[in-house]
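Thread: Modeling a multi-component assembly for a lab meeting

Hi all, long-time lurker, first post. My supervisor asked me to bring a structural picture of a complex we are working on to next week's group meeting, and I have zero experience with this. I have the sequence lines for every component (229 residues in total). Could someone generate the structure of the whole assembly? Inputs are pasted exactly as I received them:
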Amino acid sequence: DAGVIQSPRHEVTEMGQEVTLRCKPISGHNSLFWYRQTMMRGLELLIYFNNNVPIDDSGMPEDRFSAKMPNASFSTLKIQPSEPRDSAVYFCASSEGQGNNYGYTFGSGTRLTVV
Amino acid sequence: AQSVTQPDIHITVSEGASLELRCNYSYGATPYLFWYVQSPGQGLQLLLKYFSGDTLVQGIKGFEAEFKRSQSSFNLRKPSVHWSDAAEYFCAVGFDTGRRALTFGSGTRLQVQP
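Re: Modeling a multi-component assembly
Sure thing. I ran the full set together rather than chain by chain. Output:
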């Protein structure tokens, strides 16, 4: 099993540009989570999908952020336009069921730097 | 509101010494409890989990954790720390509604002295 695969590993972009982060969950996992990690705020849940349907997007900072899960094997997190305060490590995680009794498997993260 | 607290931001121990990392939660019922470890530049790796039953759970890498309902705690322990254990450790709490994702504590950074 290849685990949760995120791409790219690192992204440097200029303020105002569009950024797309990608995630491939573990096959058979039907819950997918996007988290953001910063020194100041720690790990924050952005959005949670179950069976490709968004269940909780209350953590999405603002309209500049959007996430999609068009099928069970792929999800994207898009930031448009990007701002320096979006600089963080973005993690994708997946889980069986709804996750709370299985725990999550995390990807290696995407380190985003907006200059 | 449900919450999880890791009161220690940073802990330093000597190699070979014992370790205990603290985690407290606030919730009306017994939650699902997890400990994760994050090495620099890496994602989070699950160490162990507790749902019910025996309150002392064993995990990978020689770690164990004990659930104490009376104290709303789920502390992580290791009898003898190795230099490779230096990392950040996160406690996480899940609730049985299934409609809320895990809530993570703020983390404890462990430094191991030779």
